[in-house]
Structure formats: C-alpha cells, structure tokens
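Dear colleagues,

As part of the handover before I leave the project, I'm documenting each prediction I ran so the next person doesn't have to rerun anything. This entry is a single chain, and its sequence is reproduced below.
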Amino acid sequence: MGIEIVIKNFRSVSDSRIGLRFPVTLLVGGNGVGKTNLLYGIEMLARSIDGSLQENLQADGGYDTNLYAGASREPLGFGISLGKDRYEISVRQNPDEGIVLEESSPVSATIRKFLRNCRVYRFDAPTATAGVVESEPPVLASGGQNLVAVLRWMRKNSPETYRALLREVRCLAPYVADFVTGEDGEQDRQVLCWKQAETGKVFRYESLGAGVFKFVLLCAALMQPYPPKLLLLDDPATGLNSLAINLLCELMRDSGANGGMVVASTQSSQFVDWFTVGEVLLVERREGKGTVASEPYEDSLVGFEDCNLGWLWESGILAPVPAHDKSV
C-alpha cells in the first residue's frame, strides 16, 4: 500500500512529500539539511489527529517559531494519503482566535490507526532520566523517560519479548545479566539499574556507557509491547559502534516484517550500507523550496552496482532525481 505524507511550511520545509513504499525508509543527508524537521513534521500530522497539535506547537515555541521562514507566509499544512484514504489539515494563526485548524475532511479509522502513538524517538545517550513514569498501556516516551516502567511491564506481561530484548542487549554487552530497579535517594524516585553477569553486582544505567545505553533505548522502542504502527527514529546510529549498528538494522527490519513501518534519519554511511536504493530518500535543501526528500536517481548508479551504497552517497554518486525530471 503506497503512503505519501505531505508537509508544508513547517520549519525548514516549504513543500515536501515523503513516499513510504517499504517497511523501512531511511532519510539520508548531511548536517542541517532538515532531516529532523521532516520527522517532526510527520509527528505533527499525528498530533493533529489525536487532538494535541495546538498543545505541541505551543510547547515547541509557538506557531511563528515553527512556520517556514519564506516570503509567502502560507499556513502550516500536513497531509497523508493512505490507499484510498486522504486527510489534510491547514494550521494558521488568527490574532483574535489564536491557532486555527482547518481539516479537509474527517480522519478515517485507517489513518487514525496508522498514526496512533506515532512519535519521534531521539535518544541523546545517556538520556537525562530513566525514572518511572507510569503509563497504561506502557508506550515508551519519546526520550525514554519511562524506560523503567516499560521494561517492568514487559517482564511481567510479555516475558518472551523481555527475554528477546535481553538477548539483543547481550549481543552487544554480554556482561549484562538483567535489568532491575534501583532507588535514587537524592530525587526520591526509581531508576534503571543493571545486574552484572559474572558477579551479580548491581550498577546504575549510566555505567553501561552512552552507546550501550542508547542501544537499550532503541531496543525498547522497537520491541515495546504496543509499538506505534509508524515509528520515527532520529539519528539512531549516532554514537553506536559497528556491531550495534548491525543489530539495530536487523531490529528495524524485524519491526517491518511484523507489520510496522520505520522511518529513520542518518548521515552514517555504514548505516546506509544496510539498505537498498529503493529504501533511501535523499534529503537536501533547495533554493526557494527548503528541505526536500527525493528518491535517488537510479541512472546515476550505472556502472557502480557492486559498490557500497554508503560510499556512493558520501562520494556524491548517489544523487537525487533531478528537479526537472518529470518522468519519475
């Protein structure tokens, strides 16, 4: 089923369309081109459907902060085409009414289900807190703040999934026997701890190291008991070693095989190597159009069929479809 998401006049995005044709899609581009803005644009679309768009815009600096800085000053716009279902919403600011939402039509149950709990997961490891934030069902928070609650729920209610998560973590960190809950006396809360395999000693989560702890958070996001149908990962490969990247790619493919869709951003050539040309969208900034996501121009790859995709991107050979090419 073809899916297209439209983002208009949001941050660095003037008018961009993101086609999701595969279970996993990778947004590839350098620093500052707007990959993160595309992901948050998708999240804002989801927030418009669950009724929290205005709240999220205000929490993120307000309407003007998120409006594209072009000369047109057109309203924010988000939309999705999912099979025969269509949904669009326009967001403008009125001096008298505040933020005004105008929907093209009522959202269908299919689109609502697809975007339910959709959120951007960004884990700047080690995350600030892994304290207990109760939720039912335990959907992992965007920054992993309720990781303790999610792991505890998995251990009790889905032990097979919890054991599978432990196996993934042990592939990267074989010294981890289990996760337990510890007390944080200074802030009077519970925090994540881990038990050492050989000695049985218990340590706080920070001692895992930034890369390992980030991988734990990624495992929890991809293996959580009630994962979003559409899961967004912002720069998941940053800070991970080669083994962790390989394991992460396998988990992303597993998520896709189980009926979910994953969209991730990256500038890691090693990460790109794990994907096919069809699964990649190249992100760049074009004059007058801001951030644009384009399919690679496959004709540019003739003669390079045996080369790694990441190297082709770093070398500038994996190029986007030319703007003037109307046939693609």
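The mean pLDDT is 90. The longest strand covers residues 85-94.

All the best with the project,
I.
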